[in-house]
Write a structure and sequence with these properties.
By secondary structure, this protein is mainly alpha-helical. The structure holds fe (ii) ion.
């Protein structure tokens, strides 16, 4: 069972973004605790929620002409692709894969993504100067490492590994 409350390190310092993430995380918790009978229907609703969260962030990035919008958007697209792929598994009765993604892989990806990509976006939005983005990231992780690690956390390879275990 996932935690019902976002850990403190999940805060980006931007209320609107934190609220968006809280909504996402609560939907994830709701899905993880649902019965097998309801899982398929609620999985679809959760994917719609994820699409809303990611598109909202991408709208914010466009508004400030965020310089790494491409890589951030790519991370969102990669996860959405995996979620849609898993949706087809769930619709075919493979709830083991669905629950593995919902209860383990996606929370791991989410925590990492928020503490790197989303924190950088929040810093740029709050300070009104996109040039402060890199200093804000420096204590956390290098940009190259951030892209590399994030790409490995939630890839279709990971989903395939889960399917291999099912
Ligand atoms: Fe994001």
């Amino acid at each position: 069972m996932l935690q019902a409350i976002l850990p403190p390190e999940m805060s980006t310092g931007m209320a609107a973004m934190d609220e968006l993430h809280k909504d996402f995380f609560e939907a994830l918790i709701g899905l993880s605790s649902t019965s097998a009978k309801e899982f398929e229907a609620r999985y679809g609703a959760f994917v719609s929620k994820a699409e809303h969260v990611f598109s909202t962030e991408e709208q914010w990035m466009e508004e400030i002409d965020f310089p790494i919008i491409k890589s951030h958007r790519e991370q969102h697209a990669r996860v959405l692709s995996a979620l849609h792929h898993v949706h087809s598994c769930v619709m075919n009765g493979d709830l083991v894969t669905g629950r593995e993604v919902v209860e383990k892989l996606l929370p791991q990806w989410f925590v990492f993504h928020v503490s790197t990509m989303d924190v950088a976006l929040a810093a740029a939005m709050q300070m009104g100067d996109i040039n402060v983005m890199r200093p804000a990231l420096a204590p956390l992780v290098s940009y190259a490492d951030m892209i590399s690690i994030s790409s490995n956390i939630m890839s279709l390879d990971n989903v395939s590994m889960v399917q291999g275990q099912a």
